[in-house]
Sequence to fold (506 residues):
Amino acid sequence: MQALATDTPIAVIGAGAMGSGIAQVAAQSGHRVFLLDQQAGAAEAGRQNVAKQLQRRVDKGKLKQSSLDTLLERIIPVSELGELASAGLVIEAIIEDIGAKQRLFIELEAICAKQAILATNTSSLSVTALGARMEHPERLVGMHFFNPAPLMALVEVVKGLATSENVAQCVYATAIQWGKKPVIATSTPGFIVNRVARPFYAESLRLLYEQSADSATLDALIREAGGFRMGPFELTDLIGHDVNYAVTTSVFNAYYQDARFLPSMVQKDLVDAGRLGRKSGQGFYHYTEGSQKPQPATKASTHTEENTLIVEGNAGPLAPLVARLRNRGCKVIERDGPGHLVFGAATLALTDGRMATERAAEDACNNLILLDLAFDYTQANRLAIAAAEQASPRAINDACALLQKADIAVSHIADRPGLVIMRTVAMLANEAADAYLHGVASLDDIDLAMKAGLNYPEGPLRWSDSLGCSLVHTVLTNIQQSYGEDRYRPSLLLRKNRFAEKGFYS
Fold:
């Protein structure tokens, strides 16, 4: 299906930050754009906001003034729905209220040409439900942009039960023409991103609730070990806790209160206290003038003359860490064994979802120190460790000393199942696997959505493949056993892949 021709007028209803951003995207691609808002003067204000944002690029020499003037000429503020009659695509970006949106689409059906496409920018409402009262729901499609629309690459093209395949493909092609990275999703709660991303926030919130580590330390680990652009507490402070908590609650209720999407009491307390993040001046962190962000906890070690690292068996995902240590001058001796690293008094192993204390007892290895996952052990600046209760102070010191030889800062967190990065990535992969199993989107589109929409360092399904579905399944199974909760149940597809000894893409 071809994209809409650039001489096709576009209409955007709702001139707030999102609506005016969408208007800018369409105008940049050569379309005339009608911008409408029910509040008097809001459409012109939205146009002026586009001008203000782009004028900064002109001032920096990144955009010609003539190009800005031409773009602004294409954005036409209007005041009546009837003025949208010639639009070939109408995108609504109004309040997230199902009744208001349904009434709007019924009115648009009577005004716009029969071949015009009607699109909703909803982030949480069912496209199927929005079209249920329309005479021709097949012309309705979700076109979910991410804020800020001119900068964020992802667009979720969401098909309701009645959405025409031709309509979805036309919008998909149009999004590409507009310079976006679209994905196709079916209309299920949260679509792709707002569903699959829940564990990114939820697991760190739970670890904070369990006093595994403080917010600054968890954020630093997510960034410096996990390779994510922002930690979950920084990000929710930026999004606003009222917004993030509302989305989590909406997805939780939409899935009939599935424990996997359980909201956090920690975040609810922030919302109840009015500590909404940056916009209120306080969330997990303070944002008032002169306030300083707390530093992550870093474990120091005393000097050790030990320089020999013994690798017992296959190091698996820790192999790049071993190579990094070898390059930093460690003498490496390889011998048969269960995949442990031995340095001084410490026996180190990658977390498999069990608590260090439990695993030390089961494996008869008192001085066990568990290492967390890193996205790239050759580049990680920080790593979490958890020590068994049985471990000696010397073993903990030696484990820290080993990582510091590789210039890796160590955060010694409380002994919890799966540590930080491993449990977060396992749960992201698990939710992505279920989204694919339920027909929400293709494997490629799920991974693309998480990278383009949230800047993840890797798509969760490809990340799972790089670790091995068997390891991810084991981690989740062990975490589930530790908590005794359905929240950590492995996806049926992940379980099947584990026994088939295959990945999602193989």
In short: The mean pLDDT is 97. The CA atoms of residues 89 and 117 lie 5 Å apart.
